[in-house]
Write a structure and sequence with these properties.
6 helices
Length: 372
């Protein structure tokens, strides 16, 4: 195997695949990237057995071939090479080593046989549809902050993607929750998605996909089955197993009878929450809201730090309500709202609260209160 490639092109392709590989691996081959050179293309494949990323780039090919090399070491080498360098990659006759040359630098890395690299195999993915990159970015950004990191409730460790109906309109809906807050985002249902099963896309897959889709303006082809999902765009293919579990009936926790409606300037509110929470203790992150005609009074108290209060003007006509929230969760939701005003719907101090962007009905957030 022998090829020449410009450093920037190689670095970009390596960057796409290397983050799929865990830094610590008990299985040596999973620390390696599969390097396959044929038909004037260099294809790189990295996997952790659950998530696989393949990326291809045109190269000047002298000899075709395939091998595997330690991906993080290879990435670090290429990252430290001078800009504009031409990189020559080759393997010896026995294929036990790979040599990387650029200018006066020469690196030799041990390889592992390509036959040991896990084979992806052709998966049957019967449900296919296309999303624009902006739609996919929006879908991820509006929900992923609420994904649970608690491994015992593994079925909450991802975004639940499914076809649904809203006011007789067919929508593609994404939902994430960690039990304390819930994020729901929906968009018009793409052609081909009407019969898709409800699937839970894992947190790591969501993170890798979000990074990759940032670099494209091409449509993203989505294909899925009950157990696997694949995203294809440009020269990149990301395939992932889905979480094998049942997502809870999230509709039951979205309150419909919250009749106390507060309208507030979202930036002013978020900034005030941020300032007041500086005082709150690291452990509870609690902030108290006293809501009455014309204003919300935010307050936080900490035995170590003292107290803080701030008033924010609002549009509200109703009885006084006192309610407490985790300030971090409140800020996470406030930061998702891109419009000027947010609508906060409450029932009482112990019931879930609903937050919406007044300028965008596609997203809805639910936040559980806490005692303060």
């Amino acid at each position: 195997m022998k090829l020449t490639i410009e450093r920037a092109a190689l670095l970009k392709t390596l960057a796409h695949v290397q983050s799929a590989v865990e830094r610590r691996n008990t299985i040596p081959i999973l620390s390696n990237v599969l390097i396959d050179v044929s038909d004037g293309n260099l294809a790189l494949t990295a996997t952790d057995m659950d998530l696989t990323i393949v990326d291809a780039v045109p190269v000047e090919m002298t000899e075709p071939g395939a091998t595997t090399a330690p991906v993080h070491t290879l990435y670090d080498i290429v990252r430290k090479l001078p800009e504009g360098a031409q990189v020559e990659i080759s393997t010896g006759g026995d294929g036990a080593q790979i040599t990387i040359k650029a200018g006066r630098s020469v690196f030799t890395l041990a390889t592992l046989p390509k036959e040991d690299f896990p084979s992806a195999g052709a998966a049957d993915l019967p449900h296919t549809f296309t999303l624009q990159p902006g739609e996919l970015r929006n879908l991820i950004d509006r929900t992923r902050f609420a994904i649970s990191t608690e491994e015992t409730r593994y079925y909450l460790n991802g975004i639940y993607l499914h076809a649904a109906k809203t006011d007789d309109l067919d929508v593609l809906r994404a939902v994430a929750t960690d039990g304390h807050r819930l994020a729901r985002f929906e968009m018009p249902l793409p052609d081909g998605a009407s019969d898709m099963p409800g699937v839970i896309v894992p947190r790591k897959t969501v993170g890798e996909l979000r990074k990759l889709v940032d670099e494209t303006d091409q449509p993203v082809d989505v294909a899925l089955s009950d157990t696997k999902i694949r995203f294809s765009f440009d020269s990149t293919v990301l395939s992932s197993k889905l979480i094998d579990g049942t997502f809870p009936d999230y509709q039951r926790v979205i309150p419909v009878g919250n009749d106390k409606i507060v309208k507030v300037n979202c930036r002013d509110f978020a900034d005030a929450v941020d300032r007041v929470s500086t005082i709150s203790s690291e452990k509870s992150r609690a902030v108290k809201l006293v809501i009455e005609d014309g204003s919300i009074r935010l307050s936080a108290t900490s035995p170590e730090n003292g107290t803080a209060t701030e008033d924010v003007p609002i549009s509200y006509a109703g009885p006084q309500i006192e309610i407490g929230f985790n300030s971090s969760y409140l800020l996470d939701i406030a930061r998702q709202i891109e419009g000027e005003s947010a609508e906060i719907s409450l029932a009482d101090s112990a019931s879930p609260t609903v937050v919406r962007d007044l300028s965008d009905s596609s997203a809805l957030y639910v936040l559980m209160p806490m005692r303060v």
